[in-house]
Design a protein that fits this description.
Length: 384
């Protein structure tokens, strides 16, 4: 049912080989220093990673959602740099995809080639200090003034912050209508609009994906840079989150596959008390349980991607996939720490790097609590 066709298999092999030769050699050093490598980003773009889902006419790789999932899964398996993986996925799914889906022909021609060829790094700006899961509390304003809008406010937790050349930013343009109908989306150009960034924030994990706050003070944005109709920002954001919740988790699936491979090799080679670790059920049974849980999360992700490609309602499927994958990823890495013990407690080590990354997976793209609420609401519960 989910066998890879020849093109998908070729992409998988290309991505894994690329990761081994270009990403992994200095991955641990970049992680320790929290370094964003623009040349490496360009190399990833040349392979096609930054425009996987974008049609070829605008410089992308032309993949559907399911094939995008497979490609990002291969990246997660092959790459030992979870921050870079995350930055690429956020750029693609939260910036490039909504520009493709909701942009005018002129906007697509203006923005998508650069996003796909690596010349423009994309950032997403919606979260605020007091408006995270509660996006209805958004304070950033966009005031219409003739042929432009004037934006004021501060956006926190912007992935690729400080490096982004194009920032998809959401602002309240009609407070009376709230999130649905009152928020508009804008593509800010770092070289054109009056924006500034806070200092890059230190993070526990995903350290090679820079995080900063976007500072907007009387930022004049042309109407031509508004994405979609006035007030369509809520719809645009929700659509982009559907893509992100389904496809970004594929990176975690690949990472878990790689960790399970490392764990199997470790258990088969390591002896304790004169006995091979792989002969101990206390070791193998938890790994078997992880495999079962991993495959369940994978099936939910594949199913959600295929529903997205079929044009079906995917809100429930996306939430279930995101919840299953992110919780599995966190649990998976904690179990790996127990297996590798003191070896993985030292830094840098592949397991501790993934664990620090996994702790964020249940927070971004909607917290686990939010997704449980969404699933419960679909079941008919009166969740607030």
């Amino acid at each position: 049912m989910f066998e890879l066709n020849a093109n998908q298999q070729l992409w998988r092999e290309k991505i894994i080989d690329f990761a081994a030769s270009h990403i992994n050699p200095q991955a641990q050093e970049r992680e320790q220093t929290a370094a964003f490598d623009r040349q490496l980003w360009l190399a990833c773009a040349q392979l096609g990673l930054t425009g996987l889902s974008i049609p070829q006419e605008w410089g992308g790789s032309g993949m559907d959602a399911y094939t995008t999932v497979l490609a990002l899964e291969a990246l997660g398996f092959g790459s030992e740099d979870p921050g870079l993986n995350f930055g690429i996925a956020a750029h693609l799914l939260a910036v490039a995809v909504p520009v493709w889906k909701y942009g005018t022909e002129e906007q697509r021609q203006r923005f998508l080639p650069g996003l796909c060829n690596g010349q423009a790094v994309g950032g997403n700006a919606i979260t605020e200090e007091t408006a995270g899961s509660d996006v209805f509390a958004m304070q950033t304003s966009g005031t219409p003034q003739g042929d432009h809008y004037r934006l004021n406010g501060t956006k926190t937790y912007c992935s690729n912050g400080g490096e982004a050349d194009l920032v998809l930013t959401y602002a309240m343009t009609n407070p009376a209508k709230g999130f649905f109908g009152g928020i508009s989306a804008f593509v800010l150009e770092a070289g054109q609009q009056k924006i500034s960034w806070s200092e890059t924030r230190e993070k526990l994990g995903l350290r090679t994906c820079p995080l900063a706050a976007l500072l907007l003070k009387d930022c004049a944005v042309p109407v031509a840079n508004r994405l979609g109709l006035p007030g369509a920002g809520g719809q645009i954001f929700n659509a982009s989150m559907t893509w992100e919740r389904i496809c970004l988790g594929a990176i975690h699936l690949g990472a878990m596959d790689r960790l399970l491979k490392l764990a199997t090799q470790f258990a088969n080679q390591r002896f304790s008390g004169g006995q091979n670790l792989s002969a101990r059920q206390a070791v193998t049974h938890p790994l078997a349980d992880l495999k079962v849980r991993l495959e369940g999360a994978r099936l939910l992700t594949y199913q959600a991607a295929q529903q997205l490609d079929a044009g079906q309602r995917t809100g429930l499927a996306a939430s279930m996939a995101k919840l299953a994958v992110s919780e599995c990823y966190k649990h998976f890495c904690l179990q790996m720490m127990q297996l590798f013990a003191g070896e993985a407690y030292q830094t840098p080590h592949p397991v501790e790097i993934q664990l620090r990354a996994a702790l964020g997976a249940t927070l971004y793209s909607g917290t686990s609590e939010i997704h449980r609420n969404l699933v419960a609401r679909e079941l008919g519960f009166k969740v607030h």
